Amino acid sequence: MADQEKKGTKMAKSLMIQGTCSNAGKSLLTAGLLRIFTQDGYNCAPFKSQNMALNSYITPEGFEMGRAQVMQAEACRKAPDVRMNPILLKPTGDMGSQVIVNGEVTGNQTAAEYYKTKHALRQPVMEAYRSLAEENDIIVIEGAGSPAEINLMEDDIVNMGMAAMADAPVIIAGDIDRGGVFASLAGTMMLLKDEDRPRVKGVIINKFRGDVEILRPGLEMLEDIIKVPVLGVVPYMKVDVDDEDSLSSKLRSDKGVDPVDVAVIRLPRISNFTDFDPLERVEGIGVRYVNSVHELGDPDLVIIPGTKNTMGDLEWMRESGLEAQVKKYASKGKPVFGICGGYQILGRTISDPGHVEHGGTMRGMELLPIDTVFAGDKVRAAEEGMLSAVDGAFSGLSGLPYRGYEIHMGVSGACGNIINSGNVYGTYIHGIFDKEEPLRAVAEALFRAKGLDPDSVRAMDADSYKQEQYDILADELRKALDMDKIYEIVGLKGE
Question: What is the rounded distance in angstroms from the CA atom of residue 57 to the CA atom of residue 63?
Fold first, then answer.
């Protein structure tokens, strides 16, 4: 039978979602289907063998995994588990990535080096998959990019290669919003290997705007060409769940300005920008991502986010003039908040004696009394507790409960999980705004400084908000997709 079968062990049914391109909506469709299956009483889990993203997460056990699979785990009401994403690639530049296997860093490799060793990763991938499959009824597997990248088909472990290893039926999603969806779906089917094409059991048209009846003749013609059914036309949905990477539309600077204006510096190697999603959800607060002095303006709060290359992005801020502009902003008593790499950037010095990132020592922005020294070991830890005492504009954060995680190179020698110098604040905690109490404290302080009524702040715990959004996503997909046919594809018709 399949590579995934284990004698005497009942294995989960599987379904794989692939796409005609990156950002076709695979992650969201996977999450929505997982939510539907969970609502229908099935024990489910997500799986993506190889993920490339700078948005990552630390599990309670201290392992690092891709944020998209965390979102999908939440959708099926599961704790994030590193087995859901056994390989994570975090780009360090145009030609290389940090390679993380089973949640732990194995080193940095160029693309060429990685592809030479990729075959050896089949074993940890399948060990993780089998382990999940023994514990669940359904595994929904997400592919990466496109399965029709003919130069990458050899030793593939993330698209049709993964489908073969798991003996998974495949549904391919096409993004109609970017145009050419019929050609992209037909072309993808044409370029698949002969042995892989029968695995495709249907396609989905994703991100449609308009009257689906106008599309109907095209759907019938497409089915004649590709010889598999169109399982549904999914509308362009405004569902607010975590995005995977910098393709996110959230990273625009051209958003309308709300009464309270928060500017996040869009560093070239920005990571974990999902930290600021809770702020965006507070009515009256607008979050903009800016990458030039001209775009910065005069916001009510400046945030310097996490980064995969602290020293390189500090150099960029210096060369672009943003460092000087942020320091001028801070000198007026306006609040500045740094998280992780942004926290390090705000310090006095950053030293890299072991050439972990950049080498040498750099002067920081000198707005916080810390000195960061990079070491060889990455700090990875889930965190929960009470925030340290601070004063200034956000003194209300003192002693509040928080839940988040740390993921960084370097130690900074600071006392406390959050520090401040005047109205400049820094912390290593990702997810610091996820709990309602810290979010409310910051939002109320910003409202108060703006002359707005702080009692009007409506802040919701991130977990509760997300669960509502997953239900909305599931409802929309149930309307758009032929779920009876999808259950038949999974092998659960009539069960």
Answer: 8
